[in-house]
Amino acid sequence: MQTQTTPTGPQSQATGRSLEHPRREAIRLEDVLHALSDPMRMRVVRTLAEESAELSCSVFDLPVSKSTTTHHFRVLRECGVIHQIYRGTAKMSALRREDLDALFPGLLDSVLAAAALQEGRLGGDRG
Q1: Which is it for strands 55-56 and 82-87: parallel, antiparallel or unpaired?
Q2: Which residues in the chain come in under a pLDDT of 50?
Q3: Which of 6, 27, 30, 46 is the most buried (most CB within 10 A)?
Q4: Which conformational region is residue 124 in: left (phi greater than 0), alpha (psi within -120 to 50 degrees), or beta?
Q5: CA 79, CA 82: separation in Å to the nearest integer?
Q6: What is the 3-state secondary structure (H, E, C) of the chain?
Q7: How far from 17 is each of 48, 58, 66, 88, 103, CA to CA, in Å?
Q8: Which of these, 14, 57, 19, 62, lies nearest to 38 by C-alpha position?
Q9: How many C-beta atoms lie closer than 10 Å to residue 96's C-beta?
Q10: What digits encode the pLDDT tens for the residues 72-90?
Q11: Which of 104, 103, 110, 112 lies closest to 48 in space, CA to CA?
């Protein structure tokens, strides 16, 4: 998979903190579907889809350990679903909606709508 390193500003460059993201043309449908298949990752995507701004990873209150949360964010980033960047000491995340919509028109909206319907049908947790 082709990746691109995201420059993250002077402070991050000085500390060597940068993150690998797949280039748009390298994002694969099966990877996106894999990333969206996990309830915790779906919860992250649904939250990001509701926001127009980047969110700090600390905003997400997932009922899993910190290392598992880190794993879920890494899967989402490496599969091309989210973009992450360091801003000071915070790791900020945003949905790669423009890329996903260009590559797979309607997919993200359909998955988000289906998740909302499922939540309404089954109730409870947004997982």
Answers
A1: unpaired
A2: 1, 6-15
A3: 27
A4: left
A5: 8
A6: CCEEEECCHHHHHHHCCCEEEECHHHCCHHHHHHHHCCHHHHHHHHHHHHCCCCEEHHHCCCCCCHHHHHHHHHHHHHCCCEEEEEECCEEEEEECHHHHHHHCCCHHHHHHHHHHHHHHHHCCCCC
A7: 23, 18, 19, 10, 28
A8: 62
A9: 23
A10: 999 999 999 999 999 998 9
A11: 112
Q: CB neighbours of 16 closer than 8 A, spacing ≥ 6?
A: none
Name the amino acid, one letter, at 93.
Answer: S
CB atoms within 10 A of CB 106: 9
In the block, residue with structure tokens 């390298």: 26
